[in-house]
Amino acid sequence: QTPGAHTILGHPDSLFVLFFTEMWERFSYYGMRALLVLFLVTTAAKGGWGWSRADATALYGWYTGLVYLTPILGGFIADKILGSRRSVVLGGFIIAAGHACLLFDTPATFYTGLGLVVAGTGLFKPNISAIVGQLYTKENEGGRDGGYTLFYMGVNSGAFFGILLCGYIGENISWPMGFGLAGAFMILGAIQFYFGQGIFGDIGLAKSQQTGTAVVETEAAPHIVADRLKAICVFSFFTIFFWFAFEQAGGSMTIFAADYTDRNLVGTSGMLFKIVNSLMTVIPTIILTWLLIKLFAGTAKRYLLSNALLVVCIGLIWVLVIWMLQREFGLDQSSVPATWFGVLNSFFLVILAPMFSKMWEKHWNPSGPVKFGVGLVLLGLGFAALSYGASSIPAGAKTASVSMVFLIAAYFFHTMGELCISPVGLSYISKLAPARLLGLMFGVWFLNTAIANKLAGYTGSYIDHISETYSLSVFFLIFTLIPIGAGIVLMLLNNWMKKKMHGIH
Ligand code: GLN
Known about the structure:
This protein has helices spanning about 15-40, 55-70, 70-80, 85-100, 105-135, 145-170, 175-195, 220-260, 265-300, 305-330, 340-365, 370-390, 405-430, 440-460, 465-470, 470-490, 495-500, and strands at about 5-10, 10. The chain is mainly α. It has a two-stranded antiparallel ribbon with strand order 1-2. Helix 13 packs antiparallel against helix 14 (about 440-460). It is globular. The protein starts with 6 loop residues before the first strand and ends with a helix. Bound molecules: glutamine.
C-alpha cells in the first residue's frame, strides 16, 4: 500500500491520522493549561491550592515556556535514535502519565506530572509536525502548505474542545476529573496513532527500523544548506515577533474583556449569547465528525482498531458537548466570561483553516515571505480594531463599556494572521531543513514560541504603565504599527529570501 494512495479533501488520508492524533494531544495540553491557574488560585475549601495569582501565573509561565523548549531535545533524539514515529508514541504515553500524576493532590506528584508533560511534549510535538511534511513528495508538493494548514486545524480543534470541556468540567465538577479527561484523551490518541501508523509506510521510522525500501534522501550542496538555514533564521525572527505580539494580545485582551466589555447579558441578549455559544460548540463538532466519517470510510478496512478508537473519542465529545449545552441552558447567563474570548481564536481557526488550505492550493499561493508579511499586517489590523475600540476609554479608567464587536474583530484578524504564519512556517521548515536535522529544526521552530512567551511576559509588565500614562488605545496602537512595519519589511525581503531558499517555493 503506497502512502498517499487514498485522499481526503485532496490530501493523503494519512494526514488525518496525524490530524486526530495531534488533536488529542493539543486537547490535553490546552485543556490542562486552561485549568492550571484556576486550580492553583482556588481556595483549599473548594479543592484548589489557594495560591496567589502572581505565583500561579509564574508557574504557568515556566510551564508553558518549558513545553516549547524541550522540543529541541525531542527533535534531536528522534533524528539520532528513535525516529519520529516512536518518539510520537513514547511522547504521547509520557504526557498521559503526566496527566495521571495530576490526579493525586500532592505537591510531589503534581510537579512530577508537569515535568512529564513537558518531557513528553518535547518528544511528541516536533516529531509529529515533521511527519506531516514527509507525506508530500514531488508528485503532491503543491499540497504541502494546505496540508499543514489542515493539520493546524487539528491543533486548534484540540485546543477548542480542550479549553471548553476540561475547563468546564474542572471548574464545575471536579479538578481531578478535568485533569483526568485531558489524560484520557491523550491515551486514546496515542493508542490510535500506534495502531494506525502502518498507514505511513516507511515514513518516520528510525534508520535502524527501515526495511531498505525507504527513499534515500540526497542532501543539497553545503552552501545551499547554509543558505536555507539562513532563511529559517529569518522566518524564525519574524515568528518570534508574531508570537510575542500575539501572546501580548491574548493577555491584554482578557484584561480588556474583563474590565471594559459590555457585560449586561440578561433577557434577549443573554438568550442570543447562549444561542451563539451553542452554535460555536456544535459547528466544529459537526465539521470534525464529517472528517472522521471520511477517514473511516476510506481507511476502515486497513486500520479498524485505530478508527474504532477515533469513533469512541468523537462519540465522547458529542456526549460531553450535549451535556454541557444542557447545563448551560439551565444556568442564568448574565455576563460573558473573559476566557470566552480565548476560545474564539480556535473557533475562528477551525472555521477558516479549510478555506486557507484551499486558497494556498488553488487560488493564491505567494512565496513564504509574502505570506508571512500578510500575516503580520493582519496582526496589526487586529490591534487597530482594539485601539479604535479602546479610544473611548480615558487614561487610567478601570471599567468602561465597550462593544464586544471590537474584541471579536481583533480575534478574527489575528486568527487570519496566524493562519498565514504558523502552519506556513511549519511547512517551510519541512522544506528547508536538511533531512538529517529535520526533528531538530522543528525543535528550533518551537523554541521561537518559548522565546516569544518569555519576551511577552517581560514587556507585559509595561501594559499598565502605558495605559495609565497614555491610554489603552495608545498601547494597542504601538502593536498596530510595529507588525505592519515588520510585515512590509519582510515583503521587501522577498527576492533576497527566494535566493536563499534556492528554488523552494
Ligand atoms: N497553536 C499552536 C500549537 O499549539 C502554537 C504553536 C506555536 O508555535 N506557538 O501548536
